[in-house]
């Protein structure tokens, strides 16, 4: 089974300079699961990417994986 | 990345020679056909003997797929300037490709980012069960069919909107086609490729067409 929380954590940790400051909280819902991603101060740009490209790519992939299970996945990047 | 090159009458023969020389078992061979020898001359095959980047690529992609919950088979092939990575899954292929290849594009972008963090100077092209290869072939076949019609009818025809990369692929594929020319109209994202009859009766006389 896909573990999207782990996936987001894995991707974020690989991209940032401070992997220790990465945390993902999963907020389950009936149809929609929300993932809140927190990173260190200077690392926000790394997970968002130029023109939001990285964040968009992560969202596209978790949506595809969640859809397989008939759910929706939302990624919120917290400041 | 280390490799040896061997010649032969056919690609198979050249590969066979290279395998015998290196003692690499055929099922583990990572190779590239440099010349297939089909249009005369010899065949040339490049067999890779040592590819340190391969392990990194495989490891990152495997880990990513595990987290996605996809049982995946991963095949990495070196190409001229990048690595072609073909991912095959049991039931996730269509989800990983997405509508019009949208999810695949995201995968390609993200995996490139992750791999570049580990080995800065390598680029990978991610594919799922040969989807991109098939799409490329489909586009080329379609363009050739349109070219044929243009020659028959003497009227120009438009291709459906293409990305920059697709447009380049199509124009390259049509370079050797006689009796037609290609040009684009519009600009930016609105660019449309037009296939038109060649202006001159003899395509060799005019500029713009390929010299062969």
Structure write-up:
The complex is a heterodimer of chains A (79) and B (212). Chain A has helices at 4-15, 44-48, 53-68, and strands at residues 23-27, 32-38, 72-78. Chain A has 79 residues and is of the alpha+beta class. In chain A, a hairpin with a 4-residue loop joins β1 (23-27) and β2 (32-38). In chain A, strands 1-2-3 form a three-stranded mixed β-sheet. Chain B has three domains: 2-49, no CATH class; 52-129, K homology (KH) domain (GMP Synthetase, Chain A, domain 3), CATH 3.30.300; 133-197, R3H-like domain (Ribosomal Protein S8, Chain: A, domain 1). Chain B has six helices and nine strands. In chain B, the strands form three sheets. Chain B has a three-stranded antiparallel β-sheet with strand order 1-3-2. Chain B has a three-stranded mixed β-sheet with strand order 4-5-6, with helices on both faces. A three-stranded antiparallel β-sheet of chain B has the order 7-9-8. In chain B, α2 (52-67) packs across α4. The chains are: A alpha+beta (79), B alpha+beta (212). The interface between A and B is medium-sized, with 22 and 20 residues.
Strand content of chain B: 25-35%
| Radius of gyration of chain B from CA coordinates | 21 Å
Q: In terms of per-residue confidence, which ranges of chain B show pLDDT below 50 for 5 or more consecutive residues?
A: 202-212
Task: Report the CATH topology name of chain A.
Answer: GMP Synthetase, Chain A, domain 3
- The global form of chain A is globular
Task: Count the E strands of chain A.
Answer: 3
Question: Rounded to an integer, what's the Rg of chain A over CA atoms?
Answer: 12 Å
**What does the average pLDDT of chain B come to?**
87
What is the domain total for the residues of chain A?
Answer: 1
Helical content of chain A stands at 40-55%
Spatial strand order of the main sheet of chain A: 1-2-3
Count of discrete domains of chain B: 3
Q: Would you tell me the overall average pLDDT of chain A? A: 93
What is the name of the CATH superfamily of the largest domain in chain B?
K homology (KH) domain
Distance between the termini of chain A: 30 Å
Q: Number of DSSP helices of chain A? A: 3
Beginning-to-end CA distance, first to last residue of chain B: 34 Å
């Amino acid at each position: 089974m896909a573990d999207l929380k782990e996936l987001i954590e894995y991707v974020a940790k690989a991209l940032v300079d401070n992997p220790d400051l990465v945390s993902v909280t999963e907020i389950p819902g009936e149809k929609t699961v929300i993932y809140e991603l927190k990173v260190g101060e200077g690392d926000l740009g790394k997970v968002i990417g130029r023109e939001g490209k990285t964040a968009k790519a992560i969202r596209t992939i978790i949506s595809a994986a969640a859809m397989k299970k008939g759910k929706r996945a939302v990624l919120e990047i917290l400041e | 990345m280390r490799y040896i090159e061997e010649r032969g009458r056919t690609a198979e023969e050249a590969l066979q020679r290279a395998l015998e020389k290196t003692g690499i078992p055929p099922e583990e061979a990572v190779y590239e056909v440099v010349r297939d020898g089909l249009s005369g001359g010899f065949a040339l095959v490049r067999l890779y003997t040592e590819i340190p980047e391969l392990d990194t690529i495989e490891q990152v992609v495997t880990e990513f797929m595990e987290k996605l919950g996809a049982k995946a088979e991963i095949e990495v092939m070196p190409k001229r300037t990048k690595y072609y990575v073909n991912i095959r899954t049991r039931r996730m292929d269509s989800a990983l490709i997405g509508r019009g290849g949208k999810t695949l594009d995201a995968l390609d972008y993200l995996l490139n980012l992750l791999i570049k963090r580990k080995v800065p100077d390598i680029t990978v092209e991610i594919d799922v069960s040969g989807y991109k290869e098939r799409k490329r072939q489909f586009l080329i076949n379609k363009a050739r069919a349109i070219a044929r019609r243009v020659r028959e009818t003497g009227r120009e025809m438009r291709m459906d909107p293409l990305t920059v990369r697709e447009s380049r692929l199509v124009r390259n594929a049509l370079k050797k086609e006689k009796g037609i020319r290609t040009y684009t109209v519009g600009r930016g994202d609105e660019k449309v490729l037009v296939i038109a009859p060649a202006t001159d009766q003899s395509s060799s006389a005019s500029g713009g067409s390929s010299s062969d």
